[in-house]
Amino acid sequence: MLRPLFLLLGLAPLLLVAQRATPRVQLDRLVADNPVFASGHTGFSLYDLATEQTVYSYQADRYFVPASNVKLLTFYVAHRILDRSLPAIYYRRQADRVDIWGTGYPLLLHPAFYGYDELAPWLARQQLPIVVQQPENDTPPRYGAGWSWDDFDYGYVYERSGLPIYGNRLYLDLDETVTPVADALLGAPPEVARSIVQDARQERTIRRAEETNSFTVNESIYDRRNFPLQRALRTSAAFTLRQLQQAFPDQTISGGRQPRPTLTDLSAHRVAFPDTLYRRLLQDSDNYLAEQLILQSAAARYGTFDESTLFDYATDTLFAGIGLGRLRFADGSGLSRYNLVTPNQFVQVLAALDREVGRERLLSLLPTGGKTGTLKRRFDGAAEPYVWAKTGSLSGVLCVSGLLRTRSGRWLAFSFLHNNVMGRTSDYYREMERALGWVYESL
For the chain, which has fewer Cβ within 10 Å, the N-terminal or C-terminal residue? Predict the structure, then answer.
């Protein structure tokens, strides 16, 4: 009678080990051994926010091009340097004029943010002539490092500038009450919108000639489903000055090339940067806001658009302070393929945001599975939202990193990074939903 008891006692530790191993076995099957992921490179990290322990990892210390998941790094930098306010303009009052220098402020006359633009009213209130100082050595590169130059003709790549206006974009809408239909396009900047030319021979709905702001459209553009339509503009000091003069006709505005003084010799018009805009950054994955936030952070910290020093500071100080170690942070939006980050580093960024920003606020800013933003049609298989995450995609790149709440109430940070993706995006999302759905139900 004793022998079976001794046998059971001997097996008890093995049974406990088997029970503890079950999550790893299941996640290996769903992640490491997944045939959909096998054709490319996949990394995955799952981290418990309460215990600060890794729950599961697969190739989580390997570096991946993260696409728009980089916006999580950008948000962390903006949170630490800017938080909820920023300098909209730097200026110095003279006896006969007001000299102004840009800060990268992204909202001046932005068509989507008229209600949030606090710089335009400030400019309109000035009693003295305004001199817009745009020194040649103080102009940020219009493209980030590692961007694809031939994306200029699309609606997701906008040039960066120290004093952007109208969001550095052509914004078009359709007035269906106007006839003939060729006169029905409304847009900003007005100068560019008025110059659009019809070309029935071109195949694409709208095209821009490289290095110019000359747009041509074909007849298919006059379909309500195309609007509102946005395309990038070619920026320059002369273009910016001309748009300001046209937008503020009651002001005397001229241009100059005077070097930017040090921060101690300048005044700043500070404005709020509300969560609505951070939400646009993360939920809609707004590349323009991301890039201008990097310029804003550099201008706020150094008084110039010294991105290189800012990226070094972010990597060596801000990220080092939360234990990230070595990574490559090359732009704010994730359009660059020079960015290299590991899944383990992303879960540490998310853990830091959870602590510093606050979970409730962070969840309100991130896309919610099945509800908002780029996850509106993803991770919707449960009766309640369980995934809040930033997405990212480029050709051959698909990434999702965020927070997950399990059915039992456990809070986890996760990062799913895929590179060299040759299969369908829908197949990858299906398998990620299977894996994270299992985590939701079982952990």
Answer: N
C-beta of residue 342 within 8 angstroms of C-beta of residue 63: yes
**Cis before residue 121, ω within 30 degrees of 0?**
no
Q: Which of 411, 389, 385, 388 is nearest to 400 (CA)?
A: 389
Q: Which run of H or E residues covers position 53? A: strand 53-58
DSSP letter, residue 226: G
CA distance 53 to 351: 11
For residues 429 and 78, is the Cβ–Cβ distance under 8 A? no
The number of CA neighbours under 13 Å toward the Cβ of 78 is 29
| Phi, psi angle pair for 278, to nearest 5° | -65, -35
pLDDT of residue 156: 87
pTM here is 0.92
- Quick check: 11 pLDDT over 80? no
Taking CA atoms, 113 is separated from 125, 165, 406, in Å, by 20, 12, 36
Domains of the chain: 22-74+295-442 (3.40.710.10), 85-272 (no CATH)
Cα separation of 45 and 425, whole Å? 20
Among the listed residues 110, 95, 99, the one whose alpha carbon sits nearest the alpha carbon of residue 164: 110
- Residue type for 359, please? R
CA distances to 3, 183, 204, 239, 285 from 401, in Å: 52, 45, 35, 39, 13
Per the rule left: phi > 0, alpha: psi between -120 and 50, beta: everything else, 359 is alpha
Residue type, 219: E
pLDDT in tens, 323-340: 999 999 999 999 999 999
